[in-house]
Amino acid sequence: MSYQRDFDKRLNVAIVGVGSHGYRNVLPTMTFLPVKLQSFCDVNIDRAKATAQQYGVETCYDNMAEMFRNEDLDAIFLCVPPRLHPELTCEALDAGVHVWLEKPPGMFAHEVEEMIRHRNDKIVVVGFKKAFMPATEKIVEIFDTDDYGPLRTMLGVYPMTIPSNGERIIREGEHTNWLQNGVHPLSLLLAIGGKVSSVTVHRSKHGGGVCIIEFANGVLANFHLADGARHGQPSELYQFFGNGCHAEIRNGTQVLLQRGMNYDYSGSTSFLNEGFDSGAIVWEPQFSLGTLENKGLFIQGFYQEMQYFCDCILEGKQAEKGSLEFALEVMKVYEAGLLSEGDKVLIS
Question: In 3D, which of 220, 261, 264 has the Cα closest to residue 240?
Answer without folding.
Answer: 220
